[in-house]
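Lab meeting notes turned into a lecture example. A postdoc, R.K., suggested we walk through two folding results consecutively so the class can see how the record format repeats. The first protein's sequence and structure tokens come next.
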Amino acid sequence: MEHFSRLHSTSVVVRIPRDEIVSARIEKHQLVINEKHHITLANDSKKVLNYNEEGLNITIKELDTQYTGITLRSKQIARTLLTNDDRMIDMMCSDNYQWNMGYLTEMNDRGTFRCAACKQCTIFQLSSVKRMLPMPSELWYEMLDFWHCHKPNEEDEHARNVSYLRKFNQLRPQPQCLILGAYYMIVNPEDWDGIRKAKNDSLLCDHCDELIGELDSSFGNYKILNWKMELIVGEAGYGDEVEQFKPYNYVMEKLVDETRYSGGRLFTVAYKEKKVKVWCFGEGIDFAVGDTNDGMQFRENCMKIMYQEYDPEKDGGLHVVEVEYEKPFDSFLEHIKLVNARLPVPSKTFKEWSISYIS
């Protein structure tokens, strides 16, 4: 199931032959087929969808001998707490990522970050953090061409805005403060007992010696990689809920940044010699896959992508999105292939492309 909030349209693919579908109607937030198959169209009726029969156009189309596509379309089909424009702003805002400042602040100190490898070492508790700030966008410098008549440049002694570049390169967290990026946290290693600085400027877990971060030579700060930590949620950090950072989110944030600032949609995502060709489109999609017996798995505010193997003879001129770490690249490939494998057969491919979703 796909819900396109800006198009006021929902598409559902069911494994029922077209000639066996006698009726399709809406009952609250469910699609009822033949009065016996009930498909939930929203995982949160307060937030996402309100359906009504009045003015609703239901189109039923045969996709192949086993699958049928049902499209629900109406100007009134999608009523949300967030407007469509707000949903897109929320999708594309600079700090709309896992473990952002707003989310961690709302926890009211009820969280502890620990080493994801040994699960024994406390990296830091939120109650010990004096202040958190969001990191500027990764592509801020490239976008100055669009924002300024005179782009800051160290070689131009007359550039009036050169101080912006200098300030960014000298960005440092205050003692016991964090600067939060999309996939990392900038820290002062000496502020936290669970972090040990090695001779090669890498950061290690003080308990198990797992590599958890490194010195970023581009601007001289130490950063902890989010997928090297787990967030324990609960009173004083001793709760039952464990949040893990999905490494593929790192690649997703890079793609969102590229589409947001460059307007491009077709990229080569690369880690050294590993490459995949990705076509991004359809941000802000609510997506679900599953069956009526086991239940639907919902994902909100997704980006729909298509991907295929990289061909150096055809794709050499595409813009390259460089991935610095192998694990996020491998995780990204694994994730998009896993999602693709769960899609109904007619929804898996488009010509030579494979279809997937990231969120």
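The second example is placed directly after the first for contrast:
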Amino acid sequence: MGQITHIEVPNVTKAIWESNQTHAIGGESALNVVRSATLSVAFNDSSPASKVMADLVCDGTADEVQINQLIRDAQDGYKKVVMLEGTPSLSAPIIIYPYTWLDGMGYRATKLTLATGANCDIIQGATSMGVSSRLGVTISNFSIDGNKANQTGASNGISLTGYRNIYLHHLRIDNCYTNGIDLAGGPNNPGGFQTVGYWIMSYSNGQYGFNVTNDNCDFHWCFGNTNTSDGWNIGDMDASCLFWNCQAESNGGYGFQITEGQMHEFHGCKAWDNTTGGLYLNGTVRVRVFGGFYGGDATSGIIVASSATTVATDNKIIGTQMSTNTNNGILEVNNGAGVPTDNTYKDNLLISNTGTDIVTLGTYDHWDIH
């Protein structure tokens, strides 16, 4: 465990520096300070004060080396790595381990950028341990620029495979070659893993803003906008997800695409100006949509479809507005498994859609138009 000699700074009541170096700042009395459970890294363009306080300072080239060193140090008993203000350049992934918190100083202060030609994920979960041990990761308070114009291969902003108990908050992810957020369950992790996301912006990525498969997730105030394909792609029959006030705007595909999941809930969500539809429920069972707005989409606001293998059954859309869509407010589709059955459309506001407000194919519990 490293120690430093700290010479007291006038007008500073308490300062803890965690380093293996000796800092001579000025003042009179000296004391030893033992490294705490938080490690910090500064960058080439960080302030002089931040560089003095940091455990390590990056030089602006392959800055993932120093960041990964601190994360590995955190596995020796320290739990949190703070990236101070600055714009680190990354040539390889930052590798995060179970029970580690990677934090920044805010998405306008700490800005990670992928170097030209790196062609890799920006943050990647370690896979050296078994799937059952991949848990307890927190990532927060910084932004990512995937620099997709200067990449030629797969590159996600945050990629975690087989992890559960994930907490993501206050992040902005832009311009990744593939997906902004990519979360995939492991084959030996039945039921997937749990993800909680707050205030995440995932914009202008080459495929999806959010790509989540085999995952029980809970997203609040998260935004998937201006992505080349879908804003949100959520899949797998075992998944059950909650979406609270989430949005999807101006994506090249669907705003939200949910494939063969069950018991998802959407509360006050919005999808508008998407190319292939606002919300696409493909082979879903017992999905609930309460409130929100799905409008201005180039096809239909909400599409309830049977997939090739699963009939769309017992989905409920209640108290929701679908308006100014090019085709329909709500459209039912049979993609092979059979006509959608026993779905409910009630107390919705459907106005100014170019086509018929609601188009149903099969049996239904109840539908009306307001």
